[in-house]
Write a structure and sequence with these properties.
With 65 residues, the protein is mainly α. The protein is built from five helices and no strands. The termini are close together. The mean pLDDT is 91.
């Protein structure tokens, strides 16, 4: 089941949206939409970039455990 924990994980790491954006190469605006749920189901490529930047797996960030 799809479930987005992006904001929680980003904040736990003490990162701003802008910092995460720079690390993963995804716009801060798009990341914001993912965090607040107005955009769902990003591509696997985007999920990989975000997961790598946060040193987490795609499953840890984007799917219910």
């Amino acid at each position: 089941m799809y479930y987005n924990k992006l904001k929680k994980i980003r904040k736990e790491k003490g990162m701003t949206l802008e910092e995460l954006s720079e690390l993963c190469g995804v716009s801060a605006g798009y990341l914001c939409h993912l965090e607040n749920g107005s955009r769902a189901h990003p591509s696997i490529e985007v999920m990989e970039k975000i997961a790598n930047a946060l040193n987490k797996t795609i499953f840890e960030i984007f799917f219910n455990q």
